[in-house]
Amino acid sequence: MGSLGCTFESGFCNWKKPIGATDEWRRHSGPSPSRLALPSVDHTYQNVSGYYLYAKTSIKSEGSSIIVESPVFYSDSAFCLSFWYNGNGKPIGPFIVYDYFNVIYNISGNSESVWYPVKLDISSGFNKIKFVGVKGKYSNGDIALDDIAAVPGRCSKPMIVTAFIKI
Ligand SMILES: [Ca+2]
Question: Is residue 35 predicted with pLDDT exceeding 90?
């Protein structure tokens, strides 16, 4: 499970787009390009030199998905998967986390460019984590992700944010 961890400062670690996917999560640092609604800083360093991943969910093809996923891996203990989420701009399509085909997290809305922590309890055994940004119908809303980590045992705090209602 340790192989899940990534700050995205020097690459994608073990996270990849699915074979054959036409769209992908991208690494970015620095100010948001004008056509996008990205965070102004990453989470790791909280500055413009830090990198994060983003899914450009704002542009056309409403309902289609942009996916980054882990390899299949085996964990002999339950573990806590954590990451930081940032959704910015007009109402954006949902951001969904899967373990294989099971939805383990689903959030929609605008976090107003604030990084929010998410912690998810994952069972032991074979797992495959997938982060999915779903494209919305507006032209200015994107999803960002940073600082993925996985540690054995239960998450120390329950994950409480499931929706952003301010739009
Ligand atoms: Ca980072």
Answer: no
